[in-house]
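In the previous chapter we treated chains in isolation. Here, by contrast, the input contains two separate entities that must be folded as one system, with a combined length of 228 residues.
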Amino acid sequence: GEDVEQSLFLSVREGDSSVINCTYTDSSSTYLYWYKQEPGAGLQLLTYIFSNMDMKQDQRLTVLLNKKDKHLSLRIADTQTGDSAIYFCAERGRYGQNFVFGPGTRLSVLP
Amino acid sequence: GAVVSQHPSWVICKSGTSVKIECRSLDFQATTMFWYRQFPKQSLMLMATSNEGSKATYEQGVEKDKFLINHASLTLSTLTVTSAHPEDSSFYICSARDRTYLQETQYFGPGTRLLVL
């Protein structure tokens, strides 16, 4: 079945760049998403990328997609303490209605 | 961006009672909504897919008689946890699918934290 993997933890210093990685198995994925979850809150859509793209930039966020390796990454430039949260990668296959989520990466930003 | 609300945000109830959670899409129509459950420090687990005007589709291992889903309109889906027990205590999150000819995504509600005593 479909599977999405992420590393569970990442620590960076304030002002540095953060790179969160994700791998997925469904080669028919059409959209791939990054969501942010702050403590006790729901999920906030950060950005998404269509499978025929290899890069998308949105202000401090850069998404890179390597479709051949089924690898997705989210780069956060100039990471701030407010970026501390759990980041979920999710994919949606061509024929599925629902999303498949990764386990989430807990980003800690150190002062 | 699109907004999805959930009500209530917090609920504490006694074991054996039923709890209803509402999920609303506020500025778009959602023919499909999803209900997820999240245990502490874990990822989201899809419970069921709610389709407007038809029966919900439940994931394997989710009891449909315990978790009743009603998608009465294009902007409202409800999840009722019947005869709740302490093991049902969890964070329940709904999402609504927004589909246009350009793209498709899911917008999530803020979640409902259920504590069953």
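The interface with chain A takes residues 1, 6, 32, 34, 42-44, 46, 49, 93, 95, 97, 103-111, 113 of chain B (CB under 8 Å). The mean pLDDT of chain B is 89. Compare these points with the single-chain example from earlier in the chapter.
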